[in-house]
Amino acid sequence: ISDICPDIKMNTYKCFYMPDTADQFDFTQYDYIIDAIDTVTGKLGIIKRADVAGIPVISSMGAGNKLDPTAFRVADIYQTKVCPLAKVMRRELKKAGIKSLKVVYSEEQPIRPIEDMAISCRQNCICPPGTARKCTVRRDIPGSTAFVPSVVGLIVAGEVIKDLAKK
After folding, report:
1. How far apart are CA 150 and CA 11, in angstroms?
2. Which CATH number fits domain 22-110+144-166: 3.40.50.720, 3.90.226.10, 3.40.30.10, 3.30.450.40?
3. pTM assigned to the model
4. 64, 66, 159, 161 - which has most CB atoms within 10 Å?
5. What is the DSSP letter of 82?
6. Within 13 Å and on the Cβ side, how many CA atoms surround 162?
7. Which residues neighbour 104 within 8 Å (Cβ) at sequence distance 6 or greater?
8. Is the pLDDT confidence value at 128 over 70?
9. Do the Cβ atoms of 6 and 139 come closer than 8 Å?
10. What number of CA atoms fall less than 13 Å from residue 104's CA on the CB side?
């Protein structure tokens, strides 16, 4: 990126954004925040802190279990439909008093994994606390097709550039 724009100030962090790592980030120094976090807790944390700091955010919703890169849309979180992650985020953001959030989401119905193709717990699920390696209770990790998240990234990048160019 610095080859394209030598004057850019970019920060990279090798950590997982969660409430216990949030203090590593000074949002007041940012022009824009891109949320591409995969957990609801992390997403909510970064969005709430950005809201307090007055920094614009664009959030990517679920790309897992999707095959159609042309089904992605840009909208306010409260205008989304179909996306299971957006549904959860709408509920949680409403509780937090967040009235608006720009998101990239898909209107494609998520595909369902083939039951016969289920992989053992050690490889394909997030076990609830205290149940590791016991596949009677599990939450599957939505799989991503290689090209779909990259399309979301391009849409997000385009939206950020358009928004910053308006300033």
Report:
1. 21
2. 3.40.50.720
3. 0.78
4. 66
5. S
6. 9
7. 58, 59, 60, 61, 72, 73, 74, 152, 155, 156, 159
8. no
9. no
10. 26
